[in-house]
């Protein structure tokens, strides 16, 4: 009777027919997470590039159209339209530099022979939430970084 059990045990130990299935079951979850993470990362980069392109297109308008009613505030609405983001996510910065030193007033003047530079910058913010929900994955529900990430697209130009 003992020899029969030993024969069965030898057969079970030497049988490798299910080894591939077990290996696949062990390696598939990490590979699936790697694939989903890559998709999330690529999606975030694509969104950031879209924001950068929208900011660059808006700055091109500043170059071509110049100021309207002696300011560049129209760029905020233009950036919102171009990027598809609400006006609250758009920030416009205008400043005057005298010999490379930033001044408080965009409309002011530099004294003497100082080099004058007026600059306009646009920034478009976006809260990126990865498309895949990892909260169901054991051990990943409390990992930092699975919350929305602030993406920013920006551009600036010297207008004078």
Keywords:
160 residues; TadE-like_dom; 21% strand; 44% helix; TadE-like domain-containing protein; alpha+beta; four-stranded antiparallel β-sheet
What does this structure look like?
With 160 residues, the protein is α+β, with helices and mostly antiparallel strands. The chain has one domain. It is 44% helix and 21% strand. It is built from three helices and four strands; from the N terminus they run αααββββ. It has helices at 2-14, 19-65, 74-83; strands spanning 90-98, 101-102, 116-128, 149-158. Strands 2-1-3-4 form a four-stranded antiparallel sheet. A hairpin with a 2-residue loop joins β1 and β2 (101-102). α2 packs antiparallel against α3. It is rod-shaped and about 110 Å long. The mean pLDDT is 82.
Task: Produce the secondary structure layout.
Elements: H1 2-14, H2 19-65, H3 74-83, E1 90-98, E2 101-102, E3 116-128, E4 149-158
Antiparallel strand pairs: 1-2, 1-3, 3-4
Helix pairs in contact: 2-3
Organism: Sphingomonas oligophenolica
Protein name: TadE-like domain-containing protein
InterPro entries: TadE-like_dom (IPR012495)
Distance between the termini: 98 Å
Order of helices and strands: HHHEEEE
Secondary-structure content class = alpha+beta
**Widest sheet: strand order?**
2-1-3-4
Compute the number of structural domains: 1
- Got a strand count? 4
Main pleated-sheet profile: 4 strands, antiparallel
**Ranges with pLDDT <50 over ≥5 residues?**
none
Q: Helical region count?
A: 3
Cα Rg: 29 Å
Mean of residue pLDDT? 82
Describe the global form: rod-shaped
Helix content: 40-55%
Beta content? 15-25%
Organism: Sphingomonas oligophenolica
Domain TadE-like: 18-57
InterPro entries: TadE-like_dom (IPR012495)
Pfam family, one: TadE
